[in-house]
Amino acid sequence: MTLPTPIVLDCDPGHDDAMAILLAAAHPAIELLGITTVSGNGSLEKVTYNAQRICALANITVPIARGANDPMAGKASAAPTIHGATALDGAELPEPTFKLSPLSAVELIADLVRNCDRKVTLIPTGPLTNIAMFLQAHPELHDRIEHISFMGGSTERGNWTPYAEFNIWADPEAADIVLRSGLPLIMSGLNITHQALATSEVLDRISKLDTKLAHTIVDLLKFFADTYRDVFGMPDPPVHDPVALAIIIDITVAKLVSAPVSVELTGELTRGATVVDLHGTTGQKANVDVAMELDVEKFWNMLIDAIAALGA
Question: What is the pLDDT of residues 201-219, one digit of tens each?
């Protein structure tokens, strides 16, 4: 019998982060060891509260620890035009049912990695600040990391500036540390997450589960759809973050290409852009498995099955 993959989910909920939490908690191939939060889609206070409320909604009980309030350089910037004033607008959510861990995010990650009987996979779905800080603080634990599968970047253009995706733009210095770490990395950028669209057909499938959880998720995704339509002119919203986890659950959900990836730190117009050398023109060694093409049906079956399994 294959044991589930132990993971730590580092996130900034966020509508799509909420979906990643549900998938991580419900899928039998995953053992969710803990959740850490980072300032991103909203302030650290807001996104941590949102992680607690999503766990309360779906009866999930795992350690949750607060992480970085600001990036490694500069100050945090939120995304209220996409996620609303609370960073998770669109539905009424219950109050938290358990207290936060007394540990910081970096301390909790280190504790979980150190004490797990298997190598641990880190799934960052927000800015990479906590992960970079963990890698710097605990080099002795690097060999205990199986993968870092992150949502961020793009092989093409950006969504926060013309060339930078939000998570990488929010802390390029942290992204640079992760990309240079030498650890096994998987990147789910906008080029693949824009294939994970919450269409009306998807919302109908979720709604037909006819549970409180399912109806709440539909309300959240409808809000998300409205903001994506208003800001980007997209008729259906991309549910970015669960893609990074779905690849760990079943690698056949995506086609991966090994490539050199770096992040622009100083460009006046391109700071935070991921430079993905798909054709080997730089001669650099590949350091990332870049997700390129999504099996959309398999992805949504995975997510909808998770919502059904949680039942609430």
Answer: 999 999 999 999 999 999 9
For residue 79, is pLDDT > 70? Answer: no
Of 138, 215, 240, 279, catalytic = 240
Output the CA torsion sign for 247, 250, 252, 253: negative
Note the CATH number of domain 5-310. Answer: 3.90.245.10
Does the pLDDT at position 77 exceed 80?
no
Using left for φ > 0, alpha for ψ between -120 and 50, and beta otherwise, residue 303 falls in alpha
Whether 215 is catalytic is: no
